[in-house]
């Protein structure tokens, strides 16, 4: 790009949220460019997760997570079918392994109904065994609309749509700083050819680094930018053929959904994530955590043999609070931070992948006329 390039909309971050937002804006006729620090798309949270299409049952009524997950789920199933993105609607079981956990399932069922998810079904122990013979549970909830997706195929499809609508993705181009100047947003870009671009609108979809990006833009109210927290999760993979046909989730734990079973599109089982709080983004794998995984998984899969797990991968989630706290998605427009034409997205962790198309529609609506 040449110095002083003028853009209509710049989207910062080529993860699943940035790509979905850029695609939606381009489809409405906006001129869109995605600016990505890394040399590939979706190299952080978007590709280091469970690849689950969530039903929308675990989030508080009235929250953005609940609203956008449910809307996004329907949109995502429609999109994956039409775009030929690999996915499966496998369903999941949320299991109580002890009678004392049944009231938690009752609360989850009520919350699901509050969120407009009315397809959950109770299972007793014998019905659980019929669906998953290796799972030990006294009761369970069956969520038939939960599924899995190839997140890499999905992001590639979003990028294709964006390019087809005359949008662009520019890699290895970090946003260094910016400023609001009389209705125009100016961004200073690094990379091989540092330059400055002037934009009518900017979307901060930088994921783990979204708060840092907002702090670097002069004019954005500092008090509006949340403090970032990083939750690292490990995933272990089952060495042998999976005995599961559904996703299996234990009762949720503070800070996450617990060490659960997900399947990839080849049918291989993986367990995770656990939660550890870290100071920065670090993907190193700690093999010593295996002992905790064996204990957690055997609560509902007692046949798990010693040595059955092998290292998988790690991911880091952009949290908005420390351990033991729960926070909603944050989507800020100019009325919050004082910069018209600037939309900032914070804490877009799970169910961000599921909610991505609904988030994109929300952002496009916020920028209409900018």
SS-based class: alpha/beta
Count of individual domains: 2
Quaternary: single chain
Strand content: 25-35%
Order of helices and strands: EHEEHEEHEHEEHEEEEHEEEEEEHEEHEH
CATH architectural label of the largest domain:
3-Layer(bba) Sandwich
Number of helices: 9
- Estimate the helix proportion, in percent: 25-40%
Report how far apart the termini are: 23 Å
What does this molecule look like?
By secondary structure, the protein is α/β, with parallel strands linked by helices. It has 2 domains: 5-48 and 152-223 and 327-367, FAD/NAD(P)-binding domain; 92-144 and 229-319, D-Amino Acid Oxidase, subunit A, domain 2 (D-Amino Acid Oxidase, Chain A, domain 2, 2-Layer Sandwich), CATH 3.30.9.10. The protein is 27% helix and 28% strand. The protein has 9 helices and 21 strands. Strands 1, 2, 9, 10, 11, 12, 13, 20 and 21 form a 9-stranded mixed sheet that branches. Strand 11 (184-189) and strand 12 (195-204) form a beta hairpin. Helix 1 (16-27) packs parallel to helix 5 and helix 2 crosses helix 9 (352-367). The model has no long low-confidence stretch (mean pLDDT 95).
